[in-house]
Amino acid sequence: HTTLKGKDLLALYALTREEIMDILKVAAELKQKQKEGIPHPLLAGKTLAMIFTKSSTRTRVSFEVAMHQLGGYPLFLSGQELQLGRGETIADTARVLSRYVDGIMIRTYAHSDVEELARYADVPVINGLTDLNHPCQILADFQTIIEHKGRLEGLKLAYVGDGNNVCHSLLNGCAKVGMHISVATPKGYEPNAEIVQKAMADARASGAVVEILEDPCRAVKDADVIYTDVWASMGQEAEYAKRLKIFRPYQVNPDLVKGAKPDYLFMHCLPAHRGEEVAAEVIDGPNSVVFDEAENRLHAQKAVLALTIG
Ligand code: CP
Ligand code: NVA
């Protein structure tokens, strides 16, 4: 195996292609074991602290169940109930938690807060979503694509919608593994320029093509995967009405998907808003693999936990 032991998982651009492929391999093995009912207590006696300052269904439940299935203990900590919510520093929180637990998973707003937590923690820190990225989601997505298409390299993924955290991790992940990625966003909602630069640099090494476009039809042309996400992410609730108007032409609907390969996969990290970023006919249609994606959060994260903390 690669050397993920003791490492943080803050962003996919910080991993090598080999590390990503290793996580995916272990994820598939652990999924198989769980389906066959073979116990795999790789984290017996270990505890994961899970800090949430934003809502979650999938991330919370999948990490909690992951620790349980690995024989360890998950400790849910709401940001509001921690002293962090009353002004204790991130650095002190990191140093104190490191005396009790074997790993920390955090979901919060500023990515710099997670980097600071990781800097002061002596145990691995796993990013469960920040405003900047969502690496665990994309690992589960890659596991799902491999299950349905048998490979990642050489496929084309089209991301249509907001240039947000999920878009960023897709850019960085695809560039690492050699998947072609075409992103279409409205003007002013493009992905972060630094993220795109990192992706372009990695793409040169992997042979991937990274395209940042405005036209959703061009992005989905001959795509193997069409991916979208909400138009207003957590923390952007006040912009919801404005975004609804701006993003209307970016809805993934039966008309738009006609440009993709007939056997394209529809993907969405969920939660979804039918009638907004995606039409019900698409997300509830035969090409949709959104619940496989949701399931694979469990398996991909078990691999991350076993490799970093185990
Ligand atoms: N996809 C995802 O991260 O879902 P939650 O917000 O429910 O955790
Ligand atoms: N972009 C969304 C993803 C939710 C899993 C958000 O940040 O709210």
Gist of the model:
The protein is 43% helix and 14% strand. The protein contains eleven helices and nine strands.
What is the CA-based Rg, rounded? 19 Å
Main sheet strand line-up: 7-6-5-8-9
Ligand inventory reads: phosphoric acid mono(formamide)ester, norvaline
Which band does the percent of strand residues land in? 5-15%
Distance between the termini: 12 Å
- Tell me the major beta sheet: 5 strands, parallel
| Amount of helix | 40-55%
Structural class, from secondary structure content?
alpha/beta
Number of strands: 9
The average pLDDT value, as a whole number, equals 98
Number of helices: 11
Describe this structure in words.
The structure is a single chain. Helix 5 (135-149) packs across helix 6 (165-177). The model has no long low-confidence stretch (mean pLDDT 98). The strands form two sheets. A five-stranded parallel β-sheet has the order 7-6-5-8-9. It has a four-stranded parallel β-sheet with strand order 2-1-3-4, sandwiched between helices. It is globular and about 55 Å long. The longest helix has 20 residues, at 17-36. The chain has helices at residues 17-36, 58-69, 90-100, 111-120, 135-149, 165-177, 193-206, 216-220, 240-247, 280-283, 290-309; strands spanning 47-52, 73-78, 103-107, 125-127, 156-160, 180-184, 210-213, 225-228, 265-268. The chain contains eleven helices and nine strands. Strand 1 (47-52), helix 2 (58-69) and strand 2 form a beta-alpha-beta unit. With 310 residues, it is of the alpha/beta class. The structure holds phosphoric acid mono(formamide)ester and norvaline. Norvaline is lined by residues 129, 164-166, 229-230, 233-234, 269. Phosphoric acid mono(formamide)ester binds at residues 56-59, 129, 137, 269-270.
